[in-house]
Amino acid sequence: MTINENGRLRIAIQKSGRLSDSSQDLFKRCGLKISLADRKLLAHVGNMPIDLMLVRSSDIPGLVMDGVCDLGIVGDNTLEEHALQRQLNGEPSAYDKICSLKFGGCRLSIALPEEIDYQGIQSLDGMRLATTYPRLLNRFAQQHGIRFETCRLNGSVEVAPRVGLADGICDLVSTGTTLEANGLKEVEVIYTSKAALISGDKPLSGTKAQIFDKLLPRIQGVLKARESKYIMLHAPKNKLSEVITLMPGSETPTVLPLAERDDRVAVHMVSTETFFWETMEQLKDLGCNSILVLPIEKMMR
Ligand SMILES: Nc1ncnc2c1ncn2[C@@H]1O[C@H](COP(=O)(O)OP(=O)(O)OP(=O)(O)O)[C@@H](O)[C@H]1O
Ligand SMILES: O=P(O)(O)OC[C@H]1O[C@H](OP(=O)(O)OP(=O)(O)O)[C@H](O)[C@@H]1O
Ligand SMILES: [Mg+2]
Q: How far is residue 240's CA from residue 246's CA, in Å, rounded to a whole number?
């Protein structure tokens, strides 16, 4: 049986959940025309030879490692857990992480009921912890020379201690609201995660490699644009060098004359660093005005 050999690049993304909107948005920003009809699980991109396969997040590492999909977007946590499980089973677990994406940020943490007196990692010895990530949790236990029992729950893990299923949990945390709502406190962060773009470890075939070579710079351009800002301001000519020093990442600012003003110039630049209010205030103190910080939609070097 030949799988995935129709000359179209196949990308697995989460069907619905924490990563699905951001994954679709990333490809839309890359200029891909995606029309996702209700319940359609394989969507053809209209203007590029790419198909998006909509699946459960937990299936994405396996689909990419087995070559069913060429690329995938998945959380580091899911990827690492799956790879560890496959290694234990003696199954192929190789993949390439192409880049980290800037969404889906969370941490995998151990949490215990608030009333428990936690004295450090040794307090976990002998406990029973509910988790969706037993392999990552066991690795942590081994690294710290402690033993505990794990029981697997695929969702609503935070309810386990209250119903007597476990002493504590190991689950994903972002704002901490779910822990707090369920009377739990975070005691150890065992892994930090973001969404990642992955591929299998074998090189793509000719046509697919060409599609990928077109897509990757667009993805990188979207990521770069997201963290970059276009800054414009008017500055006194005699303070120009001080102004430029203050501007974050100001390698090659453009300096333009202003109509009917010999003492002031316009300065334009792209900043790839965070532009803080404090910097704007300092620029103002130097005599700058009309300071604009604008988002950038696309970038290509
Ligand atoms: N609270 C959160 N904040 C930010 N990112 C999160 C959060 N919870 C999960 N994630 C990230 O999003 C991924 C998908 O989470 P989500 O809960 O949508 O799906 P799931 O239940 O883990 O998986 P599946 O799609 O297989 O049902 C997680 O693996 C993690 O990387
Ligand atoms: O720290 P917080 O911001 O509260 O987020 C943490 C919650 O988010 C995730 O669950 P999700 O809401 O995705 O539900 P699920 O268990 O159905 O996957 C995770 O499993 C936690 O329960
Ligand atoms: Mg979830």
A: 10
Q: Output the six-digit token pair for 221.
A: 């351009």
From the CA of 58, the nearest ligand is 1
- Strand ranges inside the chain, DSSP E: 9-14, 42-44, 50-55, 71-75, 96-100, 106-113, 128-131, 149-152, 168-173, 184-193, 195-199, 229-236, 254-258, 261-271, 289-295
What domains appear along the chain, each with residue ranges and CATH number? Answer: 9-103+195-226 (3.40.190.10), 106-192 (3.40.190.10), 228-295 (3.30.70.120)
3-state secondary structure of 243: helix
Ligand 1 contact, 58 CB (< 6 A): yes
Return d(Cα 225, Cα 271) in angstroms, integer: 10
Give the tens place of pLDDT for each residue, 42-62. Answer: 889 999 999 999 999 999 999
Helix 76-89 to helix 134-143 angle (10° resolution) is 80
Which residue has the CA at smallest separation from atom 13 of ligand 2? Answer: 18
pLDDT tens profile 148-199: 999 999 999 999 999 999 999 999 999 999 999 999 999 999 999 999 999 9
First to last CA, the chain: 42
Question: Are 114 and 183 a contacting pair, CB within 8 Å?
Answer: yes
pLDDT bucket at 251, cuts 50 / 70 / 90: low
Q: Whose CA is nearest to atom 17 of ligand 2?
A: 155
Q: ipTM, 2 decimals?
A: 0.97
Instruction: Give the count of alpha carbons within 13 A of 82, CB side only.
Output: 20
